[in-house]
Amino acid sequence: MGKGAKVFIVVLNYNGAEVIKKCLASVFKLDFPDFEVVVVDNDSVDGSLEIAKTNFSKAHFIKNEANLGFSAGNNVGIRFALERMADYVLLLNNDTEVEKDFLTRLVGAAKADEKVGITSPVIFDGLSRQIWFSGGKINWLRMKALNEREASTADCYETGFITGCAMLIKAAVFKEIGLLDEDYFLYWEDVDFSLRAKKAGFKNIVVAGSWAYHFEKSAGNLKSKTYWLVVSGLIFFKKNTPNVLKPWITGYIILRKIKNWMDIIFKRNELAPVVQKAYKDFKNVKF
User: Fold this and answer.
1) Shortest CA distance to 164 belongs to which of 218, 115, 209?
2) Which of 31, 96, 171, 211 has a CA that sits 20 to 30 A from residue 109's CA?
3) CB burial of residue 169 (10 Å; 0-12, 13-18, 19+)
4) What average pLDDT score do residues 30-45 get?
5) How does strand 7-13 pair with strand 35-41?
6) Is the backbone of residue 181 left (phi > 0), alpha (psi -120 to 50) or beta?
7) Predicted confidence (pLDDT) per residue in 103-131, tens digit
């Protein structure tokens, strides 16, 4: 089904002591015949790197000297994989667990169509077992990236973007469009990469029979998540908005800033100061 390909699985870890062991345990049970695991650690301080080293000595380990963020951290692992002639690179969050045939099905779908550049499993919420991601859609008018959560009867189908939670990428995609954009520290880099791949002529597809489970670790720090979603969202739309929509986006951002200002004055949202800081910090982003 998916044989005859070399896959490097890059697991980016940052303080994942609660999840990394279960993630890697599921990865090393995969039925795919030829894969290597690369754990890239973003300078964790909770002992999670040591847990991974102790329990999974077959993996490669790379320790960054600082928290480089999602794009730059994963790029370290991607470069490592490409230097070793990977045919595919799988980016996998440390707070995921996967089914045994998950990778075999992804590679099989990617090999079946040379135009396919990125494949994704259907991703379920690890706790509720409800669908968390079955495709992605960009709402340009409201500046949102939306996870679709509907089951599909198709075996494989195209989608607007693929989440970085679990994305299998052909080496040819990196050769054509480069690595993840390091202007994004956290969030929106996956949407950006998917869009760049699509513009280069590659298909982004979801493989309905491939399943993964996401135990969303980021939900525990809502202020940090909100901050980076706002900053990275502004970067994405600055870089990628079609010319015809740029006047709308400019006006929409002004309206959002007014709403944020009102939220602060009337104390309607405890996250409003975080959002305001994100708007201010975005002005200093150079790209």
Assistant:
1) 218
2) 96
3) buried
4) 97
5) parallel
6) beta
7) 999 999 999 999 999 999 999 999 999 99
CA distances from 138 to 34, 38, 221 (A): 35, 31, 25
> For residues 194 and 89, what is the distance between their CA atoms, to the nearest angstrom?
14
Measured CA to CA, the distance from residue 75 to residue 71 in angstroms comes to: 6
CB distance 160 to 134 below 8 Å: no
Query: Residue type at 104?
Result: T
Per-residue model confidence as pLDDT tens digits over 128-182: 999 999 999 999 999 999 999 999 999 999 999 999 999 999 999 999 999 999 9
Distance CA 45, CA 49 (A): 9
Average pLDDT over residues 19-34: 97
Please give the span between the terminal C-alpha atoms of the chain, in angstroms, as a whole number. 42
Q: CB–CB of 78/86 below 8 Å?
A: no
Asked if residue 42 lies in contact with residue 66, where contact means CB atoms within 8 angstroms, the answer is yes
Q: Which amino acid is at 163?
A: T
Name the one residue in this structure whose structure tokens are 């859609």.
137
User: How do residues 229-248 score in pLDDT, each as one tens digit?
Assistant: 999 999 999 999 999 999 99
